[in-house]
């Protein structure tokens, strides 16, 4: 297969990049310029923003734990979907590997559960 087969793809990528750059460059000239204090303030669902303490606020550890759990289980789904699609082609080897993968994820889940990471106060 020659490289000439990729010319339409490169052209489409170049067209998309040119459109994106053009849109960003032309926006300050075409958009309205009506600045006021309400537009520049932070928006918190209609509630007045609470002032942050000097040095920034502290987030509880459970916030980060929840974010990490989301990433772990999101990655698990990313690996499960292609495995499920090609289940018949992979055979017993693919099944054993997925069982090992899911076991590893459930060990992490059990650890977090046992440590109280899923309990909300």
Automatic annotation (TrEMBL):
<comment type="subunit">
    <text>NDH-1 is composed of 14 different subunits. Subunits NuoA, H, J, K, L, M, N constitute the membrane sector of the complex.</text>
</comment>
<dbReference type="GO" id="GO:0008137">
    <property type="term" value="F:NADH dehydrogenase (ubiquinone) activity"/>
</dbReference>
<keyword id="KW-0812">Transmembrane</keyword>
<dbReference type="GO" id="GO:0050136">
    <property type="term" value="F:NADH dehydrogenase (quinone) (non-electrogenic) activity"/>
</dbReference>
<comment type="similarity">
    <text>Belongs to the complex I subunit 3 family.</text>
</comment>
<keyword id="KW-0874">Quinone</keyword>
<feature type="transmembrane region" description="Helical">
    <location>
        <begin position="90"/>
        <end position="112"/>
    </location>
</feature>
<dbReference type="InterPro" id="IPR000440">
    <property type="entry name" value="NADH_UbQ/plastoQ_OxRdtase_su3"/>
</dbReference>
<comment type="function">
    <text>NDH-1 shuttles electrons from NADH, via FMN and iron-sulfur (Fe-S) centers, to quinones in the respiratory chain. The immediate electron acceptor for the enzyme in this species is believed to be a menaquinone. Couples the redox reaction to proton translocation (for every two electrons transferred, four hydrogen ions are translocated across the cytoplasmic membrane), and thus conserves the redox energy in a proton gradient.</text>
</comment>
<dbReference type="Pfam" id="PF00507">
    <property type="entry name" value="Oxidored_q4"/>
</dbReference>
<dbReference type="GO" id="GO:0048038">
    <property type="term" value="F:quinone binding"/>
</dbReference>
<keyword id="KW-0472">Membrane</keyword>
<dbReference type="GO" id="GO:0005886">
    <property type="term" value="C:plasma membrane"/>
</dbReference>
<dbReference type="InterPro" id="IPR023043">
    <property type="entry name" value="NAD(P)H_OxRDtase_bac/plastid"/>
</dbReference>
<feature type="transmembrane region" description="Helical">
    <location>
        <begin position="6"/>
        <end position="29"/>
    </location>
</feature>
<protein>
    <recommendedName>
        <fullName>NADH-quinone oxidoreductase subunit A</fullName>
        <ecNumber>7.1.1.-</ecNumber>
    </recommendedName>
</protein>
<feature type="transmembrane region" description="Helical">
    <location>
        <begin position="63"/>
        <end position="84"/>
    </location>
</feature>
<keyword id="KW-1278">Translocase</keyword>
<keyword id="KW-0520">NAD</keyword>
<keyword id="KW-0813">Transport</keyword>
<dbReference type="GO" id="GO:0030964">
    <property type="term" value="C:NADH dehydrogenase complex"/>
</dbReference>
<keyword id="KW-1133">Transmembrane helix</keyword>
<keyword id="KW-1003">Cell membrane</keyword>
<dbReference type="InterPro" id="IPR038430">
    <property type="entry name" value="NDAH_ubi_oxred_su3_sf"/>
</dbReference>
């Amino acid at each position: 297969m020659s490289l000439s087969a990729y010319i339409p793809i490169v052209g489409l990528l170049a067209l998309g990049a040119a459109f994106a750059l053009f849109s960003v460059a032309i926006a300050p000239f075409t958009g309205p310029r009506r600045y006021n204090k309400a537009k520049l303030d932070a928006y918190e669902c209609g509630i007045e923003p609470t002032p942050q303490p000097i040095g920034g606020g502290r987030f509880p550890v459970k916030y980060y734990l929840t974010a990490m759990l989301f990433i772990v289980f999101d990655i698990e789904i990313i690996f499960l979907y292609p495995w499920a699609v090609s289940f018949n082609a992979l055979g017993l080897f693919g099944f054993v590997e997925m069982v090992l993968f899911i076991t590893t994820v459930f060990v992490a889940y059990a650890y977090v559960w046992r440590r109280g990471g899923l309990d909300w106060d």
